[in-house]
Amino acid sequence: MVRFPQVVESAIIRVVRFSEQYKNIRSRLIKLSDHFSRFQKTDPRYRDAYTAYNFPVNLMKMMLLIKRLPLLHPEPFQKETIRVLDIGCGEGAGMFGLYFGVKDRKFNFTGIDSSKEALKRNGQFFRIFKQDNPDLRVSYSKKRLTLESLKRHKKRYNFVLFINTLAEIISPKRIGLEFVKSVLSLTAENGLVIIIEPALKSNTRRLMQLRESMVKNRLAHIVLPCRHHNSCPLLKIEREWCHFVIPWRPPEFIISINQGLNREIDRLKFSYLVISRSPSRYFGYTVISQLLKEKGRKKFFICTEKGRVEVFRLNRDTTSQNNEFDTINSGDLIEIDNFNLKRANLWRIEKETSVKVLQRF
After folding, report:
1. 350 by DSSP, 3-state: which?
2. Where residue 346 sits, what CATH number does that domain have?
3. What Gene3D superfamilies does the database record attribute to this sequence (predicted)?
4. Is residue 192 located within the same domain as residue 328?
5. Is residue 188 assigned to a domain?
């Protein structure tokens, strides 16, 4: 289980001054959640509550996701200086999550946000992190986020980030293809666009619809979470949405804040989409469920080019070749060889079947 970076934990404690306001943060988190549910921007009064809870959670999501990409799409990571545009950057969960997930590289970050307070907090973190890395570069632009402003942006980047910001620049309806074209035009050759959204059904299915439109119109290559370019099998099932639940160990200050709130803080829940103008390395399957235990057997679901597939193994068929089956979690990238094809959407793991986890979240 990946731990939260100690240097970030120390920076948050330094910026928020927890000893003075644990009680206030708890009460303001409740009001902050109400603002999010109505697609309202963060009230400056709740800035510390956001920094104490939402910022580390979102940073960790980005950090875990970025660690997956060098295996699948290595080119942007090979640049001497990695240029990153964080749209709706807020306090910097996206850019700093990328930074701590990759490290040992030179970075040039550009953050765009309409909130003066958010950019000020972002700058506080930047100055703290720069003490350990003088080569860290961040520039800021305070502007209102619109599709038109994206079209006017001229520079090109290795990574373009949208971390919980789509609702701010696009109405809560279907995302148009003009948005995709504008965003892709901001990427350099082999660049990546990374979108992370809350795991809410409405947000996620909107992201799934965006992916479907891109595939049908051949506008972009899908890097993750899908390992194919066919239609999304879950989009056809109204009750389903493609989101991921990843266990993590939250910092002690989040555990303290949660006393009395009783939120499920040991799971990161989110949906995401990574796209590029250039193709990636395609292999393996993405696990789109938790490992489910039933009487005498276990199962999980994967996404394939032919649809959603249930993969199961009877307990009596456990061997050294397939015992990694027992460690599989939502979001893992896996490889399966020599399975028993019961039906197109039902694969049985036999004793001689090989199951390998290529990459964990």
Report:
1. coil
2. 2.40.50.140
3. Vaccinia Virus protein VP39
4. no
5. yes
Residues 184 and 299 in one domain: no
Q: How confident is the model at residue 39 (pLDDT cuts 50, 70, 90)?
A: very low
> In whole angstroms, how far apart are CA 244 and each of 172, 203, 204, 268, 269?
21, 13, 10, 8, 6
Distances (CA, A) of 197 to 162, 203, 204: 8, 7, 7
CA distance 269 to 300: 18
Q: Nearest to residue 228, comparing CAs of 287, 175, 286, 184?
A: 286
The beta-strand segments (E) located in the chain are: 81-87, 106-113, 137-142, 157-163, 187-198, 221-224, 244-247, 267-276, 285-287, 292-294, 297-304, 307-314, 333-337, 340-343, 346-348, 354-359
Encoding tokens for residue 280? 């990636």
Distance CA 238, CA 79 (A): 42
Domain that holds residue 347: 285-359
The token pair at 26 is 């708890």
Angle at Cα 137 formed by Cα 103 and Cα 153, nearest 5°?
Answer: 110
**pLDDT tens digits, 182-228:** 899 999 999 999 999 999 998 899 999 999 999 999 999 999 999 98
Alpha helices (runs of H) in the chain, residue ranges in sequence order:
6-16, 22-37, 47-49, 55-66, 69-72, 93-102, 116-130, 147-152, 166-169, 177-184, 201-217, 252-257
Peptide bond into 225 cis (omega under 30): yes
